Amino acid sequence: MTVDFHTHNFPAALAPHAVKAMLEKLNGLLAPAGDGTIGTELRDMERAGVDLCVNCPVATRPGNFNAIFRRAVAVRDGAEGKAAAQRIFQLASVHPEDPDFSEHIRLLKENGIPGIKLHPHYQGIKLADPSLVPFFAAVRDAGLFIICHCGFDPGFVDWPMVSGPDQIAQLLESVPGLKFVAGHLGGHCGNPPHSIDKLLPFSDCWIDTAVMCIADDDPEAHRIVREWPADRMVFGTDYFWRDEAKLMAWVKALRPDPDDQRLIFGANALRLLGIAHW
């Protein structure tokens, strides 16, 4: 069972506009492997040998919640076809500054959506902001997890570090027990070597393997994949930005042990999603 825990897709009508806007923001630094649609994602999953993808939408403003929530439920219930319902696991997103975050978190829990995606750059937040502690505590108390873009973002080169290991550690100290998946190898990019080691004491913190292509040859990225505990790492690609087959081969080459691969490529993800099998 292979799970890609960090992917993105959009409604077909919105995908071309969303991808174009992000490409313009990146100023040519990254080239996408897909077009942002579920149809292409399913095709590329088949080619790469990925059984299940977790879609991670972002509420860039509080008013985005309802549309994202409705789509998650619709895809799960077959509105975009049987294959999508069977192989795409839609998460949702709640903006941390949403005045109705308690009600929206309750809706997610009641509808079996176990996780929330955050992207501090696109949401204009800082993970260590004390004013956001009630939001994160509500997520924890509902038993949901956070998956978050962490570290450098090439579309925001002038931003300070708002979601690196220091900020993650401050958040997890403030909200103990919060289940947190730190995307992009724990946000190592843009931070000194060994920075993410400060996350090791937090047993409810996982990292994903969605290394940006600009860091494929980075010795620190290699060290993290080789050394991070296998039971706290999930395979993720940030598809449609990364080719799943290529990143899968990259991770497997650095982490060849079959028992480690069983955890990284499937078992950990299924446990976070709260499903025994798919």
Protein model, in words:
Helix content is 41%, strand content 11%. The protein has twelve helices and eight strands. The strands form two sheets. The protein has a five-stranded parallel β-sheet. Strands 1-2-3 form a three-stranded parallel β-sheet. The chain has one domain: TIM Barrel.
CATH superfamily: Metal-dependent hydrolases
Strand content: 5-15%
Helix content estimate: 40-55%
* Strand ordering within the main sheet: 4-5-6-7-8
Describe the structure concisely.
This protein is an alpha/beta fold and 278 residues long. Helix content is 41%, strand content 11%.
How is the secondary structure organized here?
Layout: E1 3-7, H1 15-26, H2 38-48, E2 52-55, H3 65-76, H4 82-87, E3 88-90, H5 101-110, E4 115-118, H6 120-123, H7 133-141, E5 145-148, H8 165-174, E6 179-182, H9 183-187, E7 205-208, H10 219-227, E8 233-234, H11 244-254, H12 258-273
Parallel strand pairs: 1-2, 2-3, 4-5, 5-6, 6-7, 7-8
Keywords:
alpha/beta, five-stranded parallel β-sheet, 278 residues, 12 helices
